[in-house]
Amino acid sequence: MKMIIAVVQDKDSNRLADALVKHEFRATKLATTGGFLKAGNTTFMIGVEDQQVDRVMEIIKENCKSRNQLVAPVSPMGGNADAYVPYPVEVEVGGATVFVLPIESFQQF
Ligand code: 2BA
Questions:
Q1: Following DSSP, what letter does each residue of 11-32 receive, concatenated?
Q2: Per residue in 16-26, pLDDT tens?
Q3: Where are the alpha helices (DSSP H) in 1-109?
Q4: Residue 66 in contact with residue 92, Cβ under 8 Å?
Q5: Pocket test for ligand 1, best of 93, 99, 100, 101 (most atoms within 8 A of CB)
Q6: Could you tell me if the CB of 37 is within 6 A of ligand 1?
Q7: Which residue, by CA, sits nearest to atom 30 of ligand 1?
Q8: Is 41 in the pocket of ligand 1 (CB under 6 A)?
Q9: Model pTM score
Q10: Which SUPFAM superfamilies match (predicted)?
Q11: Helix (H) or strand (E) holding 92
Q12: What confidence score (pLDDT) does residue 9 get?
């Protein structure tokens, strides 16, 4: 068994949740915050049998797309003014960042 942990953009989270339910996969959605942008994103925990991992990856790919996002300039207050970038910078936020972990034990009571 594997635990798939997928960090996706909030804009894609409902579509992905619906697709997982439609294909009878069970998932838990967590409201999370990206460490770099400090903006909300959504993390899915999806427990599946080993042979189902590829199908879940396909569903994630089909429902999550990458987008460009502007990062607002951060005030140099007390920091190094040489490193201060006074204009917004665009970064590409991926459709999904996915980790696949082995599960040692799975029990439900
Ligand atoms: P954030 O940390 O808010 O990062 C958003 C996007 O900013 C990233 O998109 C990347 O394009 C850029 N970025 C992140 N750190 C950067 C840095 N040190 N310098 C320059 N640009 C940087 P993604 O790579 O697609 O990541 C989207 C979200 O997935 C991340 O949001 C974070 O919540 C999660 N994530 C990505 N890699 C991770 C990892 N190795 N471990 C845990 N979470 C991760």
A1: HHHHHHHHHHHHTT--EEEEEE
A2: 999 999 999 99
A3: 10-22, 53-63
A4: yes
A5: 93
A6: yes
A7: 34
A8: yes
A9: 0.90
A10: GlnB-like
A11: strand 89-93
A12: 97
Question: Average pLDDT of each block of 10 consecutive residues along the chain (109 residues)?
Answer: 98 98 98 94 98 98 95 66 74 96 97
Domains observed in the chain: 2-75+83-101 (3.30.70.120)
With a 6 Å cutoff on the Cβ, whether 35 touches ligand 1 is yes
Question: Residue 75: its pLDDT value, please?
Answer: 63
Atom of ligand 1 nearest to the CA of 43: 33
- Cβ within 8 Å of residue 63, ≥6 positions away: 12, 15, 16, 19
Judged by DSSP in three states, 61 sits in helix
Mean model confidence pLDDT for the chain: 92
The tokens for 109 are: 């009571």
User: Does ligand 1 have an atom closer than 6 angstroms to the CB of 36?
Assistant: yes
**Ligand 1 contact via 72 beta carbon (within 6 Å):** no
Whole-number Å distance between alpha carbons of 44 and 51: 19
